[in-house]
Structure formats: C-alpha cells, structure tokens
Amino acid sequence: MTYTGAEYSLEELFRELQRKAKSENVQDYNEYTGLVDEIIEEKKSYGFLADEEDLEQFKHDLELRWPEIEKTLIHA
What we know:
With 76 residues, the chain is an all-alpha fold. The chain is built from four helices and no strands.
C-alpha cells in the first residue's frame, strides 16, 4: 500500500492493525500493544505521522480497540 502526501487517520491505522494482527497471529493484548507501537513508529519513520500529532493519544485510542481486534481473531 502506498500513500503519497497523505496522513493516516485513526481508522486507517486500525484497519491496518486488524490485517496485521491476523497475519501475525496475535494472541493477546501484550502482542497487540507491541503491534500498535510498531505501526505508529513505522508510519512516523515514513513521514505519515508527525511528532507534533498526539501520537500517545493515537496509541491509547488504538489500544482501547483491542476487544474489536480480539473478536475478529477468535472468529477468523
């Protein structure tokens, strides 16, 4: 997936997290939060997320959505 000149929305990050959690067979909340950190850092390194954006809030919001991810993994 290539995004040029676009910034990621929280929803786009969440959808990517869902896909990645399934493909990496994430089993628990700790693995999920590691994946959240990984994706945030990756997007930051590519310039899709800027430091001045509230990345901690992004991370927190994504971590709160673990139950949604967990549900999709169980029924996968």
